[in-house]
Every structure is written in C-alpha cells, then in structure tokens.
Design brief:
The protein is α+β, with helices and mostly antiparallel strands. The protein has one helix spanning 31-39; strands spanning 4-7, 10-14, 25-28. The protein has one domain (4-39). It has 1 helix and 3 strands.
Length: 47
Amino acid sequence: MRTIELQGKEVVLIDQTKLPQKLEFVRCRSAVDVAKAIKRMQVRGAP
C-alpha cells in the first residue's frame, strides 16, 4: 500500500488524521488541494 499514489489526473493520499481507526483517502486534483492536505496534516513526511 502506498501513502501517495497517482491515479489518472489525481493524487490520492491516505488521510493520516484518520489512522489507525479508519483507512480513508483524500483525492487531490490540483497543487492547491495538495497544499491544503498538508496544512490539515492529512499527509505528512514525519512519523
């Protein structure tokens, strides 16, 4: 399972704010969407 995956024109991210209780995904269609996901800490580079 990948944390970040490109599916067509979308970047699909595991929503890390839901872990470990749920496995949910965030679909980003633009750089602005990705920036919002980072700001909301839905995806992060540190453990």
